[in-house]
Amino acid sequence: MSEWARSSVRVRWAVQWRSLNRLNGLDEHLMWNAAGPYLFRTRDAARTWVEGEYGYIRTRPDLRTEPYGWMMPRPLKVEVRLVPVSDRPPVEP
Q1: 90 within a domain of the structure (yes/no)
Q2: Range of the domain at 38
Q3: Model confidence over 34-74: pLDDT tens digits?
Q4: Which residues, 6 or more positions from 20, have their beta carbon under 8 angstroms from its beta carbon?
Q5: Distances from the Cα of 76 to the Cα of 15, 43, 66, 84, angstroms
């Protein structure tokens, strides 16, 4: 039986984007790709991915200051819930 079949709730590690600048203030959101959010089983796996994809931000003061205000993305513990959704209209009696 698969892990998802045993429970409809799973704890995973997502990646949170963060930036702070005068124009937009603090901007924080989960990072997604075309298939959905970036999710990892362990914090270490999320940190390794962030370092590989966005590690250059640490060495770029021009991106960390105005107008960008980028911060290193960080792992964030999230709860993933599978909830059935019916796209069919309700049946009238």
Answers
A1: no
A2: 3-81
A3: 999 999 999 999 999 999 999 999 999 999 999 999 999 99
A4: 26, 27, 69, 71
A5: 6, 8, 25, 25
pLDDT tier at 3 (50, 70, 90 boundaries)? low
Give the per-residue pLDDT at 7: 65
Number of domains in the chain: 1
**Distance between CA atoms of residues 60 and 71, nearest Å:** 10
The model carries a pTM of 0.78
Report if residue 88 sits inside a domain. Answer: no
Residue 24 region, left (φ>0) first, then alpha (ψ -120 to 50), else beta? alpha
Stated as kind and residue range, the H or E segment containing 14 is strand 9-21
Structure tokens that stand for 8 in this block: 């409809």
Structural domain includes residue 72 = yes
Residue 10 lies in a domain: yes
